[in-house]
Amino acid sequence: MPLSVLLCDDQPILRYGLRTVLAAEPDIEVVGEIDDGAAVVRETVARQPDVLVLDPQVAGFAGIEELREAAPGVAVLVFTGQDLDATLCAAVHAGARGYLLKNADDTEIVRAVRSVAAGSTVFGSRIHTRLGRLLTRPAGSGSATTFTHLTARERQVLDLVAAGASNSAISQQLHLAGKTISNHISTIFAKLRVSSRAEAIVLAREAGLGRDPNAPAGRAPTWTPPAPGRSPGPRAAMDGGHHRAAAAGMSMRR
């Protein structure tokens, strides 16, 4: 079955661009669009998509937190024009699994949708530096006493989670059943007093976990920027689609 995606943005032209980019992928289906923040939780619970692509200015971060309880199986991918530390931190702590800026290209968007649906945490390539700084603040010294309330196996699992690995990847690497990994992660969440993977990653990376010793300092997990020369993203699709629709005398679906 294709991945189901629900879009939430109050700008019809942006929704059109996203829908155009995602509909071009045979394994992705856009199952609906929302332009009213008050309807986000209700529509998401009713439709149960794999991924909700959401502008937090429409629904607010409280809506993301509410969705954690009402629709825990839905991965929230924040799609925003706000390139701010406070917005990024609020998204992570609200429980968003991914964060993209609205100038992301189509390759980034498609890859992010697939990744968050698979259980990974994704951050757009354009905020690598900011995220790396937030996650490598001096307060996170990674001392030997960090997370002493976790067992050795739980710490090992958390380290892989912080590196951006999905449950299936952790299962393969540690040669453990997927259910065992899920149980470990649930226990880790309880011990860390967090309720989302993104929150656990922030805490773990502040403590020095999840970093490839061969990777440059401050590099964010799970993301490989697309190769240069790829198509320019949803705005191109929006512009072209808008002109074609206007020429044909059509109005874009809301």
Automatic annotation (TrEMBL):
Protein name listed in UniProt: DNA-binding response regulator
SMART domains given in the database record: HTH_LUXR, REC
Positions of the Response regulatory domain: 4-117
Residue ranges of the region described as Disordered: 209-254
Gene Ontology BP annotations: phosphorelay signal transduction system; regulation of DNA-templated transcription
Lineage: Bacteria, Bacillati, Actinomycetota, Actinomycetes, Pseudonocardiales
Gene3D superfamilies recorded: 3.40.50.2300
CDD domains (UniProt xref): LuxR_C_like (cd06170), REC_NarL-like (cd17535)
Sorted UniProt keywords: DNA-binding, Phosphoprotein, Transcription, Transcription regulation
